[in-house]
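Hi L.,

You mentioned the student needs an example of a multi-chain input paired with its predicted structure. This one should do, with 637 residues in total across all chains.
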Amino acid sequence: MKKLVIKSKGLSDKAIGWLFIAPTIILLLLINVYPLIYAIRMSFTNFYANKLTQVVKNVGLKNYYKILGKEAIWEKMQITAHFMFWTLSLQIIIGLSLALLLNKKFKGNELLTTTIVLPMMLSPAVVGVFWGYLYNPQVGLFTYIVNFFYDFGSFDMLGSGTLAPWAIVIVDTWMWTPFTMLICLAGLRSIPGYLYEAAEVDRASKWQQFVYITLPSVLPFLLLALLFRGIENFKMFDMVMELTGGGPGSMTELTSMNLKREAFEKWKTGYSSAYAVILFVTIFGFGNVYVKVMNKIKDR
Amino acid sequence: MSKIELKNVTKVYDKTNKAIDDLSLIINDGEFFILLGPTGAGKTTTLRSIAGLEKINSGKILFDDEDYTSVQPAFRDTAFVFQQFSLYPHYKVFDNLAFPLKSRLRNLSKDEIKEKVEKIAKMLKIESKLNNKATELSGGEMQRVAIGRALVRDPNIYLMDEPLSSLDAKLRETLRVELKNIQRNLGATILYVTHDQAEATTMADRIGVLEEGKLVQVGTPEEIYNNPKSTYVAHRLGSPRINIIDEEILSLKDKPNNTKQLGIRPENIKINTGTYEGKIRTTEALGAETVIGIEYKQIELLALFQGSFKGIKGDNIKFDIDTKNILYFNDRNENIS
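Structure written out for the whole complex:
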């Protein structure tokens, strides 16, 4: 009998596949994985990047003890937590509300969507700088508008220890609510219209339609937006750095800003490597648990 | 259950097209009424107008002689089965079935809801699936749940928009019989929309034939089959389709004046007897019957032959036409027999 299958010469499909992804993998290993491993190694040393002549000693877990025992660092964590809790809550609530509004058909809908999305497209540093002007107690538009409705007198959003943490919450919400809104809008658009018609004929009230159809359909999208915004805001740096520089005092100094000070102003390289590893583990752990929960909700 | 009446209903989507055009219709209490027509005839629009999902441009909709023309969908109390299985995807079958009962307009206790849902589930043979998620069901089961969600209620009318069209042929036949039985047992008023003539003839008490938004004829399946008002209606019922031919081809003696076309049902053409002679063009075996396409004076006549047929393409064949059952149409395609 004649042989029907002729063995093909050259590389197998699998080998070709590996060849195609090899450049990406090598690049990722070089710029992501290698520095990570290097940082972990450094976190066990007393290395100072500005004292290259000094002998580098292995200090074991000493850096970690130092960081976790330091009250100032827990204060930064608390500032970060406050920032994250309020920005995420506000962005989810306002974003979903705006999405519900824009999901209705009306004239000028698309123009309005584009306008709302604009802040998201700006550079965070630029946003930081011009909100600095808006918050100016003498000439700032923000101060003027607030005083227009109720005269608080002159107040300094960025100068006051109680107001500054809220000032950064407002700016981040202004900038990133469009993002959660867009994701929610995508979720809302994916709900087929006949479900609402069926519900209407089934005599469900508008509130029941929202609870039974809209919310469960949009929930996976909301959770995704929350994940993205959560990771982003945990490492928030540029916007706040430009706006307050961590001040007044260190009332708005988030962990990432604090880390930058330790690493590139005090040059405690080993110590700040440990700091970075702790932050990395925190966000990585949270992220993983979150994704697992999110998938469970999706499968529900 | 109620009597539903449409009075001169017109619905326009854009200026050039009338989706429904001056449609008047009475659906009696306890009647299984089927609207038959091809895509775009206005069937679905009629249903949606009755449910209140579309606002009509003119005319009136009456439920038991009461004007419901501008009443909100929720207060019309109709049950709608959509063409797509419109189940609520995040809930179990039980919750899907219970959903219409949870409306505040109803105010039922939990035990009442449970009892009603279980009764319907049993009727539709989905009681073992009550705890499954809606998305884990097969197509047939989904549509049963969708029908069940309508049946748990006791509405003014059940409106069904081609509920069986997305199912496979076998399941469609089974559900067809079930649906008819359920309707009889409940004494339900159903307005059912389809383009499938088999569904129309097997289930309907009365059929309404729609053509481009106009109701052309209303009657029992027999009336419409035996005495269609026009060639359009004649085409809608009957499989294989009716032969509509120019009257000159047969040149019959006793025919009404101004006859233009003749309509001959395939079962009224007898094979292997008679005076006409043609050629076999096609044969299609349907099991107990065979559909034979006969070439006669450059046209094709379809004949229905009982039993298995032995001729092959190209053979000469004799046939006879049962002249008593011929339908006569004038130049405006109207039946004048």
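You could point out the following to them. Chain B touches chain A at residues 51-53, 73-74, 77-80, 82, 84, 86, 88-91, 99-100, 102-106, 149, 153 (CB under 8 Å). Chain B has nine helices and 17 strands.

Best wishes,
N.
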